[in-house]
Design a protein that fits this description.
Layout: H1 2-7, H2 18-25, E1 30-36, E2 42-51, E3 54-62, H3 71-85, E4 90-96, H4 100-108, E5 112-122, E6 128-137
Parallel strand pairs: 3-4
Antiparallel strand pairs: 1-2, 2-3, 4-6, 5-6
Length: about 140
């Protein structure tokens, strides 16, 4: 939860509660990765859920202190490999339309825009933001 709180900007309300996180982790098909710093403190994680030949990346977070070092890309690549090992052909995610840094990272990792959900995210100011659905085909990992 330390990474969750540090990794998401509170003005967009994207961080999950401990109950949401533990509930999802307890569901069949859910899997996660954790990144540790040199001092063994958690500094990043991913949470995914598989559904047949597809896996959805539900969450990815890196603490601000650990950003800019390629950790997000490493976590994405690990999630893709984990998904492939579970028999997935594609990995999907949704990202807030104005989260340009995350969208650039996802494109660098091979994800492409495939859809848009209007007014999906709500900021603390009441402003609504679309979610961009992105997909990466995992065949290139074979």
């Amino acid at each position: 939860m330390t990474v969750m709180r540090a990794g998401f900007d509170p003005q967009f309300g994207e961080a999950w509660s401990a109950a949401q996180l533990s509930g999802t982790l307890g569901m069949a098909g859910s899997f996660a990765r954790q990144a540790l710093a040199a001092d063994d403190a958690a500094c990043g994680f991913t949470l995914c859920r598989s559904a047949g030949p597809e896996v959805e990346l539900l969450l990815i977070a890196v603490t601000p202190a650990a950003r800019g070092r390629g950790l997000g890309l490493l976590l994405l690549e690990a999630a893709c490999k984990d998904a492939l090992q579970r028999g997935a052909s594609d990995l999907f995610l949704e990202v807030r339309e104005n989260n340009l840094g995350a969208r650039a990272l996802y494109r660098k990792a091979g994800f492409r825009d495939v859809g848009r959900r209007a007014d999906y995210y709500a900021g603390s100011s009441g402003r609504r933001f679309a979610a961009i659905t992105m997909r990466r085909h995992l065949g290139d990992l074979l």
